[in-house]
Amino acid sequence: MSAERKRFEQAEERLRIYARDHGICQACGKPVPMDGFEVAHRIANTASNRKRHSDRAIDHPLNKATTHPGRCNSAMNCGFRPDECRSIVEAVKAARIEAAIDRLEEAIDGD
User: Fold this and answer.
1) What is the spatial distance between Cα 100 and Cα 38, in angstroms, rounded to a whole number?
2) Which of 19, 30, 47, 65 has the highest CB neighbour number within 10 Å of its CB?
3) What span, in angstroms and rounded, lies between the C-alpha atoms of 31 and 72?
4) Per-residue burial over 71-104, b = 16 or more CB atoms within 10 Å of its CB, e = otherwise
5) How far apart are CA 104 and CA 34, in angstroms?
6) pLDDT of 2-59, one tens digit each?
7) Backbone angles phi, psi at 21, to 5 degrees
8) What number of CA atoms fall less than 13 Å from residue 50's CA on the CB side?
9) What is d(CA 15, CA 27) in angstroms, rounded to the nearest whole number?
10) 43: part of which helix (H) or strand (E)?
11) CA distance 88 to 69
12) Residue 23 burial by CB count (10 A; 0-12/13-18/19+): exposed, middle or buried?
């Protein structure tokens, strides 16, 4: 994949997350302007977390949230809340299984 295509896909994902969250900071609950939001990883994007939880879990949209920069972004980190981290990983697994089933059903139906 070209670097330009990757940048486009990352920007597109950021906008999908912003839309999913209705432009509301998931840490403080206040609106975030479209030109000033960040996408925070709930399970931090670190090498040890990628090893522990998988690249797919860390990169999945369910592990990301719209936030204000700075304190709100940091507040989303669930590193000290292991039950929340496990819930996110389980939700990612369930979403991936559901997507795989949908693809199989489409292939079988010929759509």
Assistant:
1) 29
2) 65
3) 12
4) ebbebbbbeeeeeebeebbeebeeeeeeeeeeee
5) 36
6) 889 889 999 999 999 999 999 999 999 999 999 999 999 999 999 999 999 999 999 9
7) -85, 5
8) 6
9) 18
10) none
11) 22
12) middle
Per the CB < 8 A criterion, the answer to whether 76 and 41 are in contact is yes
What ranges in 21-81 are assigned the alpha helix state H? Answer: 47-53, 55-59, 71-75
- What is d(CA 12, CA 76) in angstroms, rounded to the nearest whole number? 21
Q: What is the DSSP letter of 105?
A: H
Tokens for 72, please give them. Answer: 């709100």
Please give the tally of structural domains in the chain: 1
At 70, is the pLDDT very low, low, confident or very high (cuts 50, 70, 90)?
Answer: very high
The CA distance from 108 to 44, in Å, is 38
Instruction: Report yes or no on whether pTM surpasses 0.90.
Output: no
Query: Which tokens belong to 62?
Result: 């369910």
